[in-house]
# Entry
Amino acid sequence: MSKSNGTKAKTGRRPAKAAAAPVRADGGPGGSQVSLGRLGDFVGFRLRRVQNHLSRHFATATAAEGLRSGLFSSLALIEANPGISQIALSREVGQDKSVAVAIVDDLEKLGWAERRRSTTDRRRHALYVTAAGQAKLDALFAVVDETESAVLHQLSPGEKQLLSELLDRMYAAIAGGES
Amino acid sequence: MSKSNGTKAKTGRRPAKAAAAPVRADGGPGGSQVSLGRLGDFVGFRLRRVQNHLSRHFATATAAEGLRSGLFSSLALIEANPGISQIALSREVGQDKSVAVAIVDDLEKLGWAERRRSTTDRRRHALYVTAAGQAKLDALFAVVDETESAVLHQLSPGEKQLLSELLDRMYAAIAGGES
DNA sequence: TATTGTTATACTCTATAACTATA
DNA sequence: TATAGTTATAGAGTATAACAATA
# Structure
């Protein structure tokens, strides 16, 4: 899909009103023809579009549960790292530690995870997923899987693999270098 | 998100001392010993990681401007679609029309865009970017370009192209109707 | 003194609903 | 009746600051 967004005078000013551009941004849900302009030249825009859909779809599919944002990924990280501390959790998710407190509060209320005071460092709470949390996690991962499949099913296995690889390379550049 | 110019001086007392930069273990996910577990099996997770970084980096780089979220992409879409209506704009960005109102309010206050009452449909406001907005847009696109380059410079041009193509195919599956 | 967890708080973001003026 | 825009508002999400317990 070559990014042919029509004329894209990158560095210069574009003639705003001269050309009767294909605006037409009317109502029709079937054929909105809004141009992306320079925005279409960037990967970040495409990334956000797709990711937006995935997260919204997941939120909709799990709306009945009333899950707060970040709860699922936190639970998954606790599962993968039994005994992890709240501060390590917050670092991994990229949020403040106070957010982790609220999330773990919820997880405990739901009976999906539990805090245990660390024996080696009594400041810490070691986090663990409960049996109920494991079961819920299975269900939630199923939702994620389904959500992704709907978007990825048009990509061949090789392309999916390649996509992951490219994203990992990008992330490595972030993780390795400066921020 | 740090709002930079907030300066919310509440109850005084600022320690006035910065942390001693904990060697590593946090800023760099590269060396993190935290396992991703099943989370690592999904593309959406990778997508979010990278996109999170890009949007945060952009927000940090433009913190001095005090731009509200969505303002940049809205301005870019107005540039690409002169005369676009607010409701079409909100659809394209994926937000409620009331959000578009607030954003365009800001854009007008900043002198970067303007509303003109549509001549054909007097309910509508046709949106246009001003000369000042064009200039600002150039600067902001430069920031985006720089932000992306830092992450993409390890991908070959062919790989970048391929990445865009794959993301577009995914988005087409979304826009195509299955939601 | 530094770190973990906690609480309180403020600010941003966003959707919903009601309203107007047009169509 | 339906649509574009507007306003008011409520709720979610998140960061900041201050603090207690522990290291």
Q: What stands out?
A: The first strand of chain B starts at residue 113 and ends at 117. DSSP finds six helices and two strands in chain B. Residues 1-3, 6, 8, 10-11, 13-15, 85-87, 97-98, 100-101, 118, 121-125 of chain B lie near DNA strand D (CB under 10 Å from a C1'). Helices of chain B lie at 43-61, 71-80, 86-93, 97-110, 131-152, 157-175.
